[in-house]
Write a structure and sequence with these properties.
14 helices, mainly alpha, single chain
């Protein structure tokens, strides 16, 4: 899912760029209402990292990821039925390829990263996704990386090295690598969507529901193969799944479509910048997470790179050079 990860200014993921009229059934009828909804959605996705961290205290990472993804799938298909949209996927190849990267790799790796690492650090590493998008699209879609974007990529890679610190094997390196893999999977899924979108246009809600369902299927068999125990079910865990799966992942995406009906995509995409900040602050307040000086330097480099990419897309849209980038919704991986 790509916040500002475009090269020519076009959306990396048409699911978010092409909102449908039926999405307007949500109660947002003006630009002011859209801004209020945007703030609420940013908070929803920002705090999602901490909520997932709490959920992992009551469940194995693999089991938790399966349960929260199926919760989102059920909600999305329920909306498809309620709005009488086509239920059959429009392309099995597109669904399977995108689902593998966007759901199996992205969602699964994020959960594994959170299980062994901090919510704030994980969110920042996952948000290296726009830079992976630039590089993958350069190879797959033959889209040029422009001058200032190379600066952003360079800052991101420098920040990535400082946060991961691959030279230090004494710490928890695995969660950081899982988080990086999550960002890579997110980027690859976005590029795959654009690749398949070249030949046909997909219904955004149908496409999201099916790719998420296809991506969670291989994860669903893992608890049985690995002999993993069940989650510690109770009211708290059920509410966590409602927040992470139904609200943040499923309904959050639908609300995002509505927001894009009222706000320019370039303006709306800037909200993504606040999500890792919220995750960092909430991780410090709730879990007492602390970052080293080197990690703060790396996070600063990644943040500056994100600002450059965001500003590039925003300026391009204001000058009508190309459509503004429309990020794919992210609930926190």
């Amino acid at each position: 899912m790509s916040p500002q990860g475009r090269l020519a200014g076009e959306p990396t993921d048409p699911r978010a760029a092409h909102a449908t009229p039926r999405a307007s059934r949500f109660a947002v009828h003006s630009r002011r209402g859209a801004y209020v909804a945007l703030v609420a959605l940013t908070l929803l996705w920002g705090f999602n990292w901490a909520v997932m961290k709490v959920g992992l205290e009551r469940s194995d990472p693999v089991v938790f990821n399966v349960e929260r993804t199926w919760a989102a799938v059920i909600v999305l298909f329920a909306v498809l039925v309620a709005q009488r949209r086509p239920l059959w996927p429009q392309s099995w190849v597109a669904v399977l390829v995108t689902g593998f990267f966007q759901t199996t790799i992205n969602f699964g790796s994020t959960t594994m990263a959170l299980a062994g690492g901090g919510a704030g650090r994980t969110s920042v590493l996952v948000f290296t996704m726009p830079f992976w998008t630039l590089l993958i699209a350069w190879v797959v879609l033959r889209e040029r990386v422009r001058g200032v974007q190379w600066l952003a990529v360079g800052l991101a890679l420098a920040g990535l090295v400082l946060v991961v610190q691959p030279w230090d094997w004494s710490g928890n390196l695995a969660p950081k690598l899982w988080a990086v893999l999550s960002g890579f999977g997110w980027a690859a899924g976005s590029v795959a969507t654009k690749y398949f979108q070249r030949e046909r246009t997909f219904d955004p809600l149908n496409y999201l529901a099916w790719q998420m369902a296809a991506g969670v299927v291989p994860l669903t068999v893992l608890p049985f193969v690995l002999g993993l125990g069940p989650s510690q079910w109770g009211l708290t865990y059920a509410l966590i799944l409602v927040y992470v799966g139904a609200l943040s992942t499923a309904l959050g995406f639908l609300l995002w479509l509505v927001i894009l009906n009222h706000l320019p995509a370039g303006t709306a995409s800037l909200n993504m910048m606040a999500i890792p900040v919220i995750a960092l602050v909430s991780g410090m307040l709730i879990f007492g997470e602390r970052l080293s000086g080197v990690e703060w330097m790396g996070i600063t480099c990644i943040g500056v790179g994100l600002v450059i990419v965001s500003a590039y897309g925003y300026i391009a849209s204001r000058r009508h050079l190309a459509p503004a980038p429309a990020p794919t919704p992210l609930d926190g991986g």
